[in-house]
Design a protein that fits this description.
Helix content: 25-40%
Shape: elongated
CATH class of the largest domain: Alpha Beta
Strand order of the largest sheet: 8-7-6-9-10-11
CATH topology of the largest domain: Rossmann fold
Number of helices: 9
CATH superfamily of the largest domain: NAD(P)-binding Rossmann-like Domain
Number of strands: 11
Mean pLDDT: 91
Distance between the termini: 41 Å
CATH architecture of the largest domain: 3-Layer(aba) Sandwich
Structural class: alpha/beta
Order of helices and strands: HEEEHEEEHEHEHEHEHHEH
């Protein structure tokens, strides 16, 4: 690998920018493929570049047979993120299961007594108000956002920020009645019906979950279902 290519690859990874590295296994020529462009000395046809771009979304490596030799495409994606609003009883098992599923977990709660609990040692914890935290964290297409507080002062600003972002999953804890009231408030805030349909509420798959751990299982399962494109 050329030092310039290695530097660019390391730069992308440090910036948590998704990138794929295509290498011709015969010639050694390489091409860095980003969501918005490419750079390098390896020439690939447009179909291969598009396929490599899709691989960035699915975290799957690829191999192509070309007249110039076999090309291997290795994907370097930052870990997906799970942003949890509310350091409550469900949060601990959800954070641990999310981490086991490969997510970088951040717990957001401005209530000091909640956020400083030892239960969240080992996880990133932010004591900012949710809208401020979201402005800092900037949810993207590899981010899931889950609100758990039942408090409109905390959940609503987080959901509003998530709806304005490219977060691939948005979920909110609460009964159907609570969720209907929540949607009403967000609609008054200017969000359309199609936008509000992005929110999974009540959050999680309907598996009859009762305990905090079971609810966490249902949430992680639903996040996985959405991320992997299964309706």
């Amino acid at each position: 690998m050329k030092s310039a290519t290695l530097d660019k690859l390391q730069e992308a990874r440090a910036a948590k920018r998704p990138v794929a590295l295509a290498t011709n296994l015969r010639s050694g020529q390489q091409l860095l493929i980003y969501a918005d462009g490419t750079e390098g000395d390896l020439c690939l046809d447009m179909d291969m570049v598009v396929a490599a771009g899709e691989a960035l979304k699915t975290d799957e490596h690829l191999r192509f047979a070309t007249p110039a030799g076999e090309v291997f495409v290795q994907v370097f994606n930052p870990p997906p993120r799970l942003l949890v609003v509310g350091a409550v009883h469900i949060t601990e098992p959800l954070a641990r299961m999310g981490a086991l599923a490969g997510y970088g977990v951040t717990v957001i709660d401005p209530r000091r007594g909640f956020a400083e609990s030892q239960k969240f040692e080992g996880f990133a914890v932010m004591g900012d108000w949710p809208d401020e935290a979201m402005a800092t964290l900037k949810p993207d297409s590899r981010t899931a956002v889950v609100t758990l507080t039942h408090d409109p002062k905390l959940d609503d600003p987080a959901l509003a920020a998530a709806l304005r972002s490219k977060a691939f999953y948005i979920g909110a804890l609460g009964s159907r009645k609570t969720h209907a009231a929540r949607l009403g408030r967000l609609k008054e805030a200017g969000f359309s019906e199609p936008e509000l349909q992005r929110i999974h509420g009540p959050v999680g798959l309907d598996i009859g979950a009762l305990s905090p751990a079971e609810i966490a299982v249902s949430i992680v399962a639903q996040i996985t279902q959405v991320r992997r494109g299964d309706s």
